[in-house]
Amino acid sequence: MTTTSDRGPARPARPLAASTPDAPPTGADRVRQGVVLVGALLAVLGAAWGSGAFGGTTMPEVADGAFAPSSSPLTPATGAFSIWSVIYLGLVALAVYQALPRSAAAPRLRATSWWVLASLVLNAVWIAVVQAEWLWASVAVLAGLLAVLAVITVRLVRTPSRSATQSVLLDATLGLYTGWASVATLANVVAVLVHERVVDLPPVGGTATVAAVVVLVAGVALAWAWAALTRGRPLPAWTIAAAMAWGFAWIAVARTTTELTSTPLAVVAGAAAVLTLAAPLVVPRRSVVPR
Predict the structure, then answer these.
(1) How does pLDDT run across 1-12, given as a tens digit for each residue?
(2) Structure pTM?
(3) Which of 40, 107, 134, 227 is the most exposed place for a label (fewest CB within 10 A)?
């Protein structure tokens, strides 16, 4: 179908990438499938072991409780971390799905599988450096993880999904992962600042509370940036927003139920959750041109 305009006849519309059959699988595809499957399973098990799931020191206990809910004004209450069960389940399912013979040449998996593995390795590395009490290194690792997840998100937005299964395993799982990692990065920064005494908790000076408010504002800005990036793809847009709002809501809970209480900060965190959920509604959608 062609159209005309003041500038003359238009070129025929490009066919959607989804209508183009997948290229035949290559040896590199098969290698990628095997390495990503084994690597992802090992990374998930390593992360679970390092976080105390099989015994040993749990994350809230490491580094003299630097990541305990009452140690920092931006650390969520314990219930927030149940989201990891959903994320890990989705990531394991994704690792298995990408290893299936029919998935070998899928464009979205070709574009993202190595990056997904990199994100899992970085997550395991973060747990390792925290257990070693290298807290400043943990900030750098989480920043790297967030950068990797940003690359994955961009690639998912640019590549159309071929099925509902692909959408759920890729867009929903990685959306939750990205949203939660965003909140975790912000909370990690404030926790390290408090632990290293760069900022002080009340009643010493209260600079940590000010830092927490500033970081929460930055978190809302980040949530809206994700909404703008994913506005052509509702599933990643909503799952990123849902995971971030979940984290902010549990920060509000922690500020009303732990020893480190702050009604103003709880209100700000609650408002951040609401504004985050509003982002996919307010940011206008656009059509995505597959590449």
Answers:
(1) 444 444 444 444
(2) 0.87
(3) 134
| Backbone dihedral region for residue 206 (phi beyond 0: left; psi -120 to 50: alpha; all else: beta) | left
Residues 6+ apart with CB under 8 A from 71: 65, 191, 194, 195, 260
What pLDDT does residue 283 have? 84
Q: pLDDT tens digits, residue range 115-156?
A: 999 999 999 999 889 988 899 999 999 999 999 999 999 999
* Residue 124 in tokens: 């395991």
Q: Which residue has the tokens 């040993």?
A: 56
Cα gap 36→33, rounded to integer Å: 5
Q: Which residues pair with 5 in a beta bridge?
A: 8
Helix ranges (DSSP H) in the chain:
27-50, 62-65, 83-98, 107-131, 135-158, 164-166, 173-195, 207-229, 234-257, 263-282
DSSP state of 22: P
Asked if 50 and 57 touch (Cβ cutoff 8 Å), the reply is: no
Beta-bridge mates of residue 8? 5
Q: Phi and psi dihedrals of 199, rounded to 5?
A: -125, 155
What angle in degrees, to the nearest 10, is found between the helix axes of 107-131 and 135-158?
Answer: 170
Q: What is the DSSP string of 30-85?
A: HHHHHHHHHHHHHHHHHHHHHTTBTBS--GGGHHHHTTSTTTSTTPPPGGGGGHHH
Of 176, 285, 196, 287, whose CA–CA distance to 241 is shortest? 176
Q: Is 46 exposed, middle or buried (0-12, 13-18, 19+ CB in 10 A)?
A: middle
